[in-house]
Amino acid sequence: MSGTYLGMPSFPEAARDAVRDVTLRGNLRRATHTIRDKRAGAVAELDDWGRLREAGKRIKDHTLRHLDRYLVQVEEAVTAAGGTVHWAADAAEANAIVTRLVQETGESEVVKVKSMATQETGLNEALEAHGIRAYETDLAELIVQLGKDRPSHLLVPAIHRNRGEIRDIFRSEMSEWGRPAPEGLTDTPAELAEAARLHLREKFLRARVGISGANFMVAETGTLVVVESEGNGRMCLTLPETLISVVGIEKVIPTWRDLEVFLQLLPRSSTAERMNPYTTMWTGTTDGDGPRAFHLVLLDNGRTDTLADEVGRQALRCIRCSACLNVCPVYERAGGHAYGSVYPGPIGAILSPQLRGTASDIDASLPYASSLCGACYDVCPVAIDIPEVLVHLREKVADQGGKGHRLERAAMRAATWLLDHPAALTAGERLASKTRKLHPERLPGPGARQWTNSRDLPDLPAEPFRDWWKKNRA
Ligand code: SF4
């Protein structure tokens, strides 16, 4: 994964400021509760939701088990339809391929459809380093880009911003990137949307290169699918002469019949819509219609390592609907930035440490960024057992021995020695009983002190149990 967020502090440290930010918490609470309630209503309309969910899970598991075969099928089908397929082992290779492809067109700007894969690789920054400007065209991504901000939600990357903040960003930043915000812009949704529409339209009409991800790739025909709500995707996917799609290898599904299942699961889980407003599908190139050149960059970037883990691989089923974020009590309070990755919330807590490994502070702390309440598993449309993977990853982190775990291990070693030496144990117990009046009521250290702020430490008896036993039962 891109190193953009690496070097971040651990999750609890990064979340500390966010939980104190009253505005942020208010914005998040309002937005997540609205989406979660609507989703529940949309799902309740279908009496076969449970079976759809099981079908989605099985299709994904089957595809992941035979990923090698289906990826080759995608490559053959895309090539036969006039496209070119590139394989990228990691973020750096994907960025180098895309940069070269854009340079070969002679262009210095591109329009982008919202894409998690290119955020994961840090593509915009890589293009910028080569003098190529990437324009985000999804409304929320535009807000993030203009505000020099970072996304904090899978589906609504600017969920941490309210309307007033968005108006201020448009007023002060739009002119730097193209058409300025209209005079006297207010914070009404219609005016903000119109300002974005006017700003983006000139970019759609000028751009000769488009960059996208894809929600699904259908192996039997090599067809790519993007679902979206604003129509910006349709513009980016059809108007430019060259289209480059960067897609994670886990996005493949075998057949169109399988697609039917996901086109029901995804919109209801993400935006609570029965059907998303725009579904764009394309297969290679077609004379006189759409882009004349199509490149598909298949991205690994830690996915095959994730696939090798029998428990963790279920994270690759994810269809990025964001339902798990909207119900997560930790996400609601900490916000998305604290997760230090383009993948926030419960799915981020299990995906990022698998894609990037657990060497950094932030990645080693992510499996602990959960209360294990299980709400994420209940809403997941492909039944990813996120709590199970979190516990599995905690075990891995503990095995590799972080700072906290070294202390725990030292304490366990001391306890082992003490229990192996009964005389020392007896002497220690007597000493503890004799000095019990001197013991503190709260444990030392910030974490332990907080824990004992709301709990009483048990009283030590005046006499150790073994002495009592000898006296009374001998
Ligand atoms: S883990 Fe499940 S609920 Fe969360 S984003 Fe992925 S598919 Fe949606």
TrEMBL record:
According to the entry, every stretch annotated as the 4Fe-4S ferredoxin-type domain falls at 315-384
Skewed-composition ranges (Basic and acidic residues): 464-474
Residue segments, region Disordered: 431-474
Q: Which domain of life is it from?
A: Bacteria
Provide this UniProt record's keywords sorted from A to Z.
4Fe-4S, Electron transport, Iron, Iron-sulfur, Metal-binding, Repeat, Transport
Q: Which residues form the LUD domain?
A: 73-285
Say if the entry is tagged with keyword Nucleotide-binding: no
**Pfam families attached here?**
Fer4_8, LUD_dom, LutB_C
Q: Which InterPro entries match?
A: 4Fe4S_Fe-S-bd (IPR017896), 4Fe4S_Fe_S_CS (IPR017900), FTHF_cligase-like_sf (IPR024185), Helical_ferredxn (IPR009051), LUD_dom (IPR003741), LutB/LldF (IPR004452), LutB_C (IPR024569), NagB/RpiA_transferase-like (IPR037171)
Annotated Lactate utilization protein B C-terminal domain ranges read 394-472
Signal sequence segment:
none
Q: What is this protein called?
A: (4Fe-4S)-binding protein
Name its species. Streptomyces ambofaciens
Q: Which classification does the entry list for the species?
A: Bacteria, Bacillati, Actinomycetota, Actinomycetes, Kitasatosporales
